[in-house]
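// run 5 | inverse folding | seed 20
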């Protein structure tokens, strides 16, 4: 029996997800490799970066109930100033995979959890297709980690049996459009912050400028009149020259609406209501509070539950009764939901107090 869709001839190991997903750079090509994709799609795009940080910081700051104090200490540790669940959430959103190394002390107990850079990790498979270990590569140095030393958390990927699928691929076209619109705006600003015009030479006798005259005129235009610092500067024309301003048509101005639509699509790919990113024209949610509640219900809580469940399962060897879960009673965005539940349960006269406690999560 072949598991995980194993096919004969497949290599026993292969690099982590690093292929392009249809992104485009200024030359019409999206950079190949995860690091280059993150630089273009995350580091250089304000909407994508804010969406990822909003979800990751919410997951990292979610109140967690742990079954043991030592387990809570492991989960609550900070990595480079960020909470561990938040780092894992960001890696899942961007790469689709998170590899958490279990560091042990001298007695063999789990002492710390450290998230590895996912693009540096390769899964090694055994003859039946099951993960047998992990290889971590940094430059020319290679470290092999046993399967029980690493907790692999991945998002669903219908096309791969071992590596997850991040959200950058789904947002690739929208990010490319948004970045191109920002480049357009910058170029428009560099050219006097207004639509360019045409310098018309019409001496009346049908003659044309010589090559030398054309070159000199072009240099003077670029040096004295292009750029935001020269906006509004008057021109001195001679010898039959006149300036014919050109304006953008309404169709040419559609890139403004296109940029806004691209920003909303980026937010959609990462599961963030556009209102929370300050995008105008969003009427899906009645107010900011409702949008924040939707973020927690549809994105933050499911992602946090998946991360905490995977961490609890990976630490079962040290904490057999490990249990990790977000406490919704301590989430400010969900206070109204809990209040509504409590009010409904309190008004029910056909159930006992013990049943009411069970319904609100206080059952013994």
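// decoded
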């Amino acid at each position: 029996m072949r598991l995980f869709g194993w096919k004969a001839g497949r290599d026993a190991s292969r690099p982590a997800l690093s292929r392009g997903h249809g992104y485009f750079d200024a030359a019409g090509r999206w950079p190949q490799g995860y690091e280059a994709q993150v630089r273009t799609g995350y580091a250089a795009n304000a909407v994508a970066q804010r969406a990822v940080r909003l979800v990751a910081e919410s997951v990292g700051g979610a109140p967690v109930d742990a079954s043991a104090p030592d387990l809570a200490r492991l989960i609550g540790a900070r990595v480079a100033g960020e909470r561990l669940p938040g780092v894992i959430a960001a890696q899942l959103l961007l790469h689709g995979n998170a590899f958490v190394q279990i560091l042990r002390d001298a007695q063999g107990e789990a002492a710390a959890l450290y998230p590895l850079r996912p693009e540096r990790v390769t899964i090694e498979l055994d003859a039946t297709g099951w993960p047998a270990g992990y290889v971590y590569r940094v430059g020319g140095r290679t470290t092999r980690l046993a399967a029980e030393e690493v907790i692999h958390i991945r998002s669903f990927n219908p096309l791969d049996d071992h590596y997850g699928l991040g959200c950058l691929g789904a947002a690739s076209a929208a990010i490319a459009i948004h970045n191109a619109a920002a480049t357009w705006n910058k170029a428009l600003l560099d050219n006097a912050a207004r639509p360019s015009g045409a310098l018309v030479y019409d001496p009346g006798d049908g003659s044309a400028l010589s090559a030398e005259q054309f070159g000199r005129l072009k240099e003077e235009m670029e040096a004295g009149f292009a750029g935001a610092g020269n906006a509004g500067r008057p021109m001195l024309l001679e010898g039959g020259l006149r300036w014919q301003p050109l304006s953008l048509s309404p169709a040419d101005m559609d890139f403004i609406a296109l940029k806004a639509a691209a920003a909303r699509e980026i937010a959609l790919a990462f599961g963030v209501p556009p209102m929370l990113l300050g995008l105008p024209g969003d009427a899906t949610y009645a107010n900011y509070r409702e949008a924040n509640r939707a973020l927690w219900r549809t994105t933050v809580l499911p992602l946090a539950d998946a991360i905490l469940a995977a961490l609890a399962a990976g630490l079962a060897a040290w904490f057999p009764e490990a249990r990790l879960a977000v406490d919704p009673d301590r989430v400010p965005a969900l206070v109204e939901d809990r209040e509504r539940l409590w009010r409904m349960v309190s008004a029910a006269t056909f159930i006992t107090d013990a049943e009411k406690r069970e319904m609100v999560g206080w059952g013994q």
